[in-house]
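User: Small ask, check this?
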Amino acid sequence: MLNEISLGYSRRDALRRLALRTGLQEVRSFVGLIIQSDELGTSLVELLRNYAADMRFSEIEQSEKLAAQASTKMLFPLFMFIFPTVFIMMLAPMMKSLLTGGLGF
């Protein structure tokens, strides 16, 4: 972006080209924020504070969403591997005593 500005592109065009090159939504919204601040003449500091708070909130929201999906994804291995092992460990002594001679009273 800095090279494009030194080549003669306006800052707005260089920022937009940066957003197109990266293809990330976060970069596009950041570039839009900077361009809007430049056009309207508003304080960039306050806009960046609000943008950082929004980014933190979206990151927390994404983490909570992934954490909620983790419990569902753990059900299959739990039922396939852990529960059968626990049942075998609990039933093995009982089956051994039944096969060797009774109830063991």
